[in-house]
Design a protein that fits this description.
The protein is an alpha/beta fold. The chain has six helices and eight strands; from the N terminus they run E-E-H-E-H-H-E-H-E-H-E-E-E-H. The strands form three sheets. Strands 2-1-3 form a three-stranded parallel sheet, covered by helices on one side. Strands 6-7-8 form a three-stranded antiparallel sheet. Strand 6 and strand 7 form a beta hairpin. Helix 5 packs across helix 6. The N and C termini lie far apart (about 65 Å).
Length: about 210
């Protein structure tokens, strides 16, 4: 019975280099995703597959000293996707906000992590992904923090800005290619704030939605 060893690490962190002391004829490779791999030298045997039965048979018959299964996490993921056809017919978009815990340390509690602050910051980071159409993640950083604070500022002064008529409507003409005449116009709203200057809808629409909901 062999000893299973799981090697974890970011791309380029040296997972391949950790096996540099093996001789090429001592290793057999299962390439789950069939991608190019930066391993030095060759392999005694190679299998490009994510089929459990094929991999099981390959590992049982391999004569090499060790079998490397690259990207083993995709074994479970690919099998799950195959068994759940709904994910093929109706793709699901996964997104997540990530906050480093060292960004959420209580200054007054001897370095204790503020879990509530961490959760809030993850939510703020995730909210920046709205409108995207692919699986993605967002890390909470200084730029996201500044944007969140600015949106709060917009939200707090927006009711007064409406009363002071700081929002201005601009008409963008629509030109007919066949008639060669102006056939209409698109109304565009802009916020001319004495505190923040000229603000486009992309910057204040989220604050406007929050004000309307409140």
């Amino acid at each position: 019975m062999g000893l299973p060893v799981l090697i974890l690490g970011f791309s380029g962190s040296g997972k391949s280099s950790s096996m540099r002391n093996f001789k090429p004829d001592e290793l057999a490779l299962v390439n789950v995703n069939g991608k190019f791999l930066p391993f030095r030298g060759g392999f005694a045997e190679t299998l490009n597959s994510d089929d459990f039965e094929k991999i099981k048979s390959f590992m049982s018959s391999a004569k090499a000293k060790a079998v490397v299964v690259d990207d083993s996490q995709y074994l479970m993921l690919n099998e799950f996707m195959r068994r759940n056809s709904l994910f093929v017919k109706y793709p699901v978009v996964f997104s997540a906000g990530i906050c480093r815990l060292n960004q959420c340390v209580h200054e007054s509690k001897h370095g204790e992590v503020d879990i509530n602050a961490a959760i809030d910051r993850c939510k703020i980071a995730k909210s920046t992904l709205k409108g995207t159409h692919f699986s993605s993640i967002a890390f909470y950083d200084g730029s996201i923090r500044d944007r969140a604070l600015r949106e709060k500022d917009y939200e707090s002064i927006m009711p007064g800005a409406l009363q002071r008529h700081e929002f201005q409507c601009y008409l963008q003409p629509k030109y007919g290619l066949r008639s060669r005449n102006i056939e209409g116009a698109e109304a565009l709203i802009r916020w001319n704030s004495p505190d923040f200057g000229f603000i486009s809808p992309g910057d204040f629409k989220k604050s406007a939605a929050a004000c309307a909901a409140g």
